[in-house]
Amino acid sequence: MSNADKLEQLAELIPIWGRELGFQAVGITDTNLHQQEKDLQRWLDKGYQGDMKWMGEHGNKRSRPDELLPGTKRVISARMNYLAPATEPIRVLKDSSKAYVSRYALGRDYHKLIRKRLSQLAKQIEDFIGREHGARAFVDSAPVMERPLAEKAGLGWTGKHTLLINREAGSWFFLGEIFTNLELPLNQEQEKNQCGDCKACLQVCPTDAFPKPYVLDARRCISYLTIEYDGLIPEEFRDPIGNRVFGCDDCQAICPWNKYAQHTHEQDFLPRHKLHDSDLLELFSWNEEEFLQRTAGSPLRRIGYQRWQRNLAIGLGNAKASAEAHSALTEKLPNTDAVLAEHFRWAITQQENPQRRRKRKIKRPDNN
Ligand code: B12
Ligand code: SF4
């Protein structure tokens, strides 16, 4: 068989092998991200990355896969559903006594699982061609523009909320990819953008984090504030954060395309410790040891106990006034550092003044 025929056959086998390994779809693309490189630079110039300095720290490696891994000719992009059944995002979001944890973070951390499956896929490719192909697997683990690559590989279109949507599966999925030096044929068609006139995600955002469609100002995004951002959460954001204690899914939960979302097949992504439906007070009662024990191997572990308590305190400040919430906050207050204490005091004041007007949604200032 000629080399070209072999690559042709391989390009047909990769999506099949990918599905056998638990991915819902796999596509192949070239490495050209010329336009996205310019857009990324504009985004960084605006400062939308906030404290995520790492977003701008790798020169052009993020937008040029062959600079990150020399010799890369193609990117094999894969997606895997994570939404667990019966996790009812909207019901939990609407119940102020509950803690809302982003649906991607309810089970085991996805990085290891997906990277392992991608490495298996890379090995199958190697076995088929009978030599190494300079492959490396990535899952949100290196400077890679995963969403634009997946879009180019035909896995979906970018919604106005900046996430990838697939017409048969919505957007509740992770992305990962393999870089390879094989010049696989490109025959995937890119999915047409199907957002149309809809603006639901832009309008529902509690903190008005989208300066315009397809652009997110991370500094205002609740996902950034509760997961990535360390320190004092500016007061204007505390009311709109509501009961979201780890990440935010509002822009996905409202998206009409998510009525086509399919549940995950992975046991590892099923909720642990009832995290999909826990009371704020119950999670707030965990001491540091319990937090470390119960979040071992979970994405929640990353934020550490301080940020966890900070987020829960904001949630309690937004919960219905109750003697239990008030005393839980006052009891823990003496053992907090200055930053945490500021959030606890704010939450206590909120609890003591239930008549305070709660601004569930805020607007971005006109000048940015
Ligand atoms: C940094 C990051 C974040 C940041 C910033 C998000 C962002 N939109 O940039 C924060 C912490 C806020 C975040 C939040 C979330 N994230 Co995140 N995040 C990433 C990460 C590491 C990089 C994303 C990135 O490159 N951002 C930089 C900006 C510039 O990229 P962009 O938004 O795609 O920007 C494009 C547009 O701005 C456009 N553009 C610029 N100007 C203009 C103008 C016009 C007119 C147009 C049309 C376009 C345009 O060009 C840019 C470049 O292509 C990726 C993993 C990875 N390595 O890629 C995961 C990733 C994007 N996140 C993911 C997830 C699941 C989430 C959350 C849902 C988690 C949660 N529940 O809290 C939220 C969703 C928030 C949201 N609406 O984006 C998934 C998305 C999967 C999917 N279906 O698309 C990814 C791919 C991780 C993964 N491996 O699965 N995330
Ligand atoms: S909510 Fe509407 S505008 Fe936003 S991503 Fe979904 S379809 Fe597109």
Automatic annotation (TrEMBL):
Its EC number is 1.17.99.6. [4Fe-4S] cluster 2 binds at C205, C221, C248, C251. Binds 2 [4Fe-4S] clusters per monomer. Cob(II)alamin binds at R62, D140, T158, L164, L175, S223, C248, D249. GO terms for molecular function: 4 iron, 4 sulfur cluster binding; cobalamin binding; epoxyqueuosine reductase activity; metal ion binding. Keywords: 4Fe-4S, Cobalamin, Cobalt, Cytoplasm, Iron, Iron-sulfur, Metal-binding, Oxidoreductase, Queuosine biosynthesis, tRNA processing. It catalyses: epoxyqueuosine(34) in tRNA + AH2 = queuosine(34) in tRNA + A + H2O. PROSITE patterns: 4FE4S_FER_1, 4FE4S_FER_2. Monomer. This is Epoxyqueuosine reductase. It comes from Pseudoteredinibacter isoporae.
